[in-house]
Amino acid sequence: MKRLLGLLLLMSASVWLAACQEDSQLPEKSVFKEDEMPQDGEPLKIGFAMDTLKEERWLKDRELFEQAIESRGLEVDIAAANGDDALQIAQAEEMIQEGIDLLVIVPHNAEATAAIVHKAHGAGIKVIAYDRLVKNAEIDLYVSFDNEKVGELQAEKMLELVPEGNYVYIGGAPTDNNAHLLKKGVFDVLQPAIERGDINIIYDEWTEDWAPEQAFAHMSQALEINGNQIDAVIAANDATAGGAIEALAQQGLAGSVPVAGQDAELAAVQRIVDGTQSMTVYKPIQQLSERVAALAVELAEGNEIEPTVSINNGKSEVPSVLLEPTAVDIGNLESTILADNFHSEEEIDGME
To answer: Could you give all domains of the chain from N- to C-terminal order, each with its CATH number?
Structure first.
């Protein structure tokens, strides 16, 4: 019995020694405190600082951009300032402090938001200007539709409908660089007709914050000053077009004076069907949100992007991607807006 116990003890000791030798050959295990765990597995986070959600168009942008980012396995932090410059700067600063990997911004004020770009770059964060250009800042990328082309399409349609007569121009927000690009496109096309004396610009005003009620006031004033002798209206977007059409309606002129807008908002498409708005410019924002999301991932991962277009913003030549807009009237509504499911027939009241 004693010999048996001794043998068992000797075997146990041998097993223990072998185990110790095996452990000594294993690599040392790293020990992390909870707040020191590696962060490599965390998804990239994109900040989306928006000007406003007061218009239907921007609600669509928010939804589509969020879907585009999350479908790529990234996180997105979205904030809207609703036209408040100080709030937009504060919202962007908070995103930067919380450690976003890239900032996408829709500026309310093209110049004021340069401060956001400086702060982001100071934190090593790249910035994409979404749909609207930021002025006087070293923007990493600008993605939008060709806004001069939007204005050209509006003016071309109006000249087709009204080759001679009195024109009213209801501009967008003077703080928005897009409003200036739109106006340039409009007047580049109208200028030859103006010089020939075929058309007269009898009213031309900006609209603060693209507000429909201010567009209504402008149109009412234009009608009063000119004794209702107005033949065509070009409005900077569908919201301002809606305000102008409301003023025309009060004078019994809705439907008899052609009106151009842009954005293809549901209300504008309904007005096109009803005959009170002549055209809009369709900008498929699903293409815009998808393109920005894809480019945001590339930039956030440190990859280089080499667009073929650059736009001067007063500070530098900004690498840019410009998408193509489409003029839409009652004739091609079905093949554009409906075909893309931008709006459905059920949504468009009165659509046959």
So the answer is: 45-139+285-323 (3.40.50.2300), 147-283+328-338 (3.40.50.2300)
